[in-house]
Amino acid sequence: MNNLCADIGWKSINHEGEQLCGDHIDIVDQDENSSVIVLADGLGSGVKASILSTLTSKIISTMLAEGISLEDCVSTIAATLPICSVRGVAYSTFTIIHLIDHETVELIQYDNPDVIFIRDVEIYDYPRRELHICEKTMYKSVIKLQEGDVMIAMSDGCPHAGIGLAYNFGWKWEDIAEFMRGISVAGYTAKTMATMLVDECNKEYGYSPGDDATACVVKIRRREPMNILFGPPKNRDDCGRMMALFFSKEGKHIICGGTTSSIAADYLKKPLRVSLDFEKSDIPPIAKIEGVDLVTEGVITINKVIEYAKDVLGDNRYYEEWSFQRDGASLIARMLFEEATDINFYVGRAVNPAHQNPDLPINFNIKMSLVEELSGCLKQMGKRIKVSYF
Q1: Residues paired with residue 342 on neighbouring β-strands, in sequence order
Q2: For position 32, what pLDDT does the model report?
Q3: Is the N end or the C end of the chain the one with fewer CB atoms within 10 Å?
Q4: Rounded distance, CA 150 to CA 188, Å?
């Protein structure tokens, strides 16, 4: 078993005037290290296209994940999808990215733009062979994966961007590939890379998209553990045990909370240096302890991290904010969203007297719910999460 994992992120924009997107992405995990990703582009736009693409992606991803052959998947789609009364056809184009043990990828492509494959910061011309299934021509590729590989699947709304505006014939595949190659070296998450591509397409459309546009990015990377300590233990006698377990874990260490950081400083026998410089007016300053990667305030900072996490799982509008700013919440966001793959939470159940003021909207239950909410968001990002309470 290798030590690789996949970072998967996607974003869509709708055809102007449409409430539903005609593209759909489905991701189904076969096991801890294998998954099926399907990007489907329904015929036309709006409700009809949305139904076609949703059915296509759901059927293919579910059946392939259960080990059913591609031929059976395609024949099932052909028998299932409704016929368009206008065009007399019923189909949705699709791209399948089948990750197997994070060692191999199977690409199956039907009428969508070719998957862009970036390896060693170069566009990789991967092998492909032609398949004929149910009178449809598809292309299949089987590629051995290595750390740093990036795959970008997209609907045809991306290369169509800018037709008649910025470009005569749209944003060419070669130009999109070069754009993605340029940003692939910056260490962005897959979600951020997909966002940057779709945002650029929206810009090329003059912010009035003439088609649904969707991008899905898959990054192959090495597993990276991260540890976060939040709150002192309920029983003071457990401080030493909690700290010993926390600091014995491999990976970077983040400490959140004033009392918690004081306990950690005492355990390490190192001074706690508190800064009074506010990077952002609504986020308390960070502190420093030798041997700890990041020390921040607790509840307010974590609440902001959750706000960023929810946005990452949605429209990802704030990625430029947390990607570059130096406040505690932004620093935690970068470490958890971009660096970490396996995150260990060490959560103290002690009640903070400062939080018992009835005039404050903070209490013990809210503090615990913050941990549950953040860990839930991180799981949706594909992180492995373990929470230990003290």
Answers
A1: 225, 384
A2: 83
A3: N
A4: 11
Q: What residues contact 269, with CB distance under 8 A and at least 6 apart?
A: none
Rounded to whole angstroms, the Cα distance separating 162 from 203 reads 8
Residue 240: CB atoms within 10 A of its CB come to 13
CA distance 39 to 360: 46
Structure tokens at 357: 């003021």
- Note the CATH number of domain 4-222: 3.60.40.10
Q: How far apart are CA 144 and CA 100, in angstroms?
A: 10
Closest CA to 295 of 248, 263, 250: 263
pLDDT over 60 at 44, yes or no: yes
Rg of the chain, C-alpha, whole Å? 24
If pLDDT is split at 50, 70 and 90, which confidence band does 246 have? Answer: very high
E strand intervals along the chain: 4-13, 23-29, 35-42, 92-100, 104-110, 116-119, 122-123, 129-133, 136-144, 150-154, 213-222, 225-230, 252-256, 273-274, 287-288, 294-296, 342-347, 384-389
C-alpha–C-alpha distance, residues 176 and 116, integer Å: 9
pLDDT in tens, 105-163: 999 999 999 999 999 999 999 999 999 888 888 999 999 999 999 999 999 999 998 77
Q: Does pTM surpass 0.85? A: yes
Beta bridge partner(s), residue 216: 10, 153
* Half-sphere exposure at residue 16, Cβ-oriented, CA atoms within 13 angstroms: 9
As a three-state string, the secondary structure of 296-359 is ECCHHHHHHHHHHHHHHHCCCCCHHHHHHCCCHHHHHHHHHHHHCCEEEEEECCCCCHHHHCCC
What are the φ and ψ backbone dihedral angles of 351, each rounded to 5 degrees? -90, 125
238: DSSP letter: G
In the chain, ranges of CATH 3.60.40.10 domains: 4-222
